[in-house]
UniProtKB/TrEMBL annotation:
The chain crosses the membrane at residues 47-66, 72-90. GO terms for biological process: GPI anchor biosynthetic process. InterPro entries: PIG-H, PIGH-H_dom. This is Phosphatidylinositol N-acetylglucosaminyltransferase subunit H. Pathway: Glycolipid biosynthesis; glycosylphosphatidylinositol-anchor biosynthesis. The keyword tRNA processing does not apply. The keyword Glycosyltransferase applies. It comes from the Eukaryota. Pfam families: PIG-H. Residues 96-151 form the Phosphatidylinositol N-acetylglucosaminyltransferase subunit H conserved domain. GO terms for molecular function: glycosyltransferase activity. Signal peptide: none annotated. It comes from Papilio xuthus.
Amino acid sequence: MVDIRQVDDHENVNGVNLSLKIETRTNTPNTKIFTISFKNKERKAHWPKLSLILAIIFNILSFVYVRISVNTLLVIIIVLLFLVFFWITYSVQSESIIVIPTVGIQSTTKYVFGRVDVFVPWSNIDDIVINEVIKLNRVLYYLTLLVKSGPNQSSQESDGIKLMPLFKYTKPRLVLLEIIYSEFQTLLMGAQRDGVQSGSGDIE
């Protein structure tokens, strides 16, 4: 059985509208999928085209008034086209995490072309926290996974803890992070209740 819950009308730290979808699969083991995506994709897709048009106009004016050589103009156009192509290709569309108790967590970043997946085994997960970061004159919040690092990851004597930020590209505000954090802690407590150790983190 699959239960889908949609949370809309929230902005990220930059004022861009976000949509949170929570998908619950009640089969064994209980699985939750959290997906944060941009709602105004049409506005995001408009800016690369506008940038390309402005770049072409700028190069034409430079060629007419500055009288630069044709070779220099071609180099500038090629570089600008490459930058626009790189921007469009690596523009993040959505981020999601799949939480499967006793198995692990998979973080997925979806781009215009392709995706990047990072998997963390359940035995390496120590805890999950909402981390506060001061960046310039702003206070940002990140949902951070505490992952045991070092050769003794499966034991309590790990060499250290590695921080793995989640949703670092969509940058949701605290209210959305608290929703995901609450659901995640419910899964952790359920796994602990069933006798599955996720790590040394404190779970209340």
